Amino acid sequence: MKKLAVTLCGALLSLAALAAEPAMPGMAMPAGHTNPHASMPTWGTHGMAMFGGKNGLTAAHLPMAHPPHDYQAIFTFHVADAKIDAALRQRLEAHPTLWTIAPEKFELNRLDPASNNPLRHFKADIVLGHFEQDGKTEYPDVTIVVDKIELYLKL
Questions:
Q1: Which residues pair with 75 in a beta bridge?
Q2: Residue 109 confidence class, pLDDT cut points 50, 70, 90
């Protein structure tokens, strides 16, 4: 179990480095235009690494060193479609490898256990490999149901 945890931590750090994108100064909205999500400081697409097996599924947000991605969130979940959930667990159990989640845009702060509007579910593509690095979408547009927030912290 300790070896798995160390391997997972290393993989998450590597994925975060691969997905890191520098903050882009000078890329502000043009004058007269407003960002409709400006009041939501962690709004965006929050890619995640996924791991697990027959006993359950876990997702870990791939954090970056800049907003809106500068939070670590880890949670257990299931796929609303029971057949896809069972198939995914079986595949992860039989052959542990990198899987990622490419979710719809959402407010990451909704994964904070203290949120007034907690995120209970969201749509996502489940990708074999890295969703930004030539991964292959295996299960498109599934509903991910958040079961339990295990960790949520600002970096």
A1: 59, 149
A2: confident
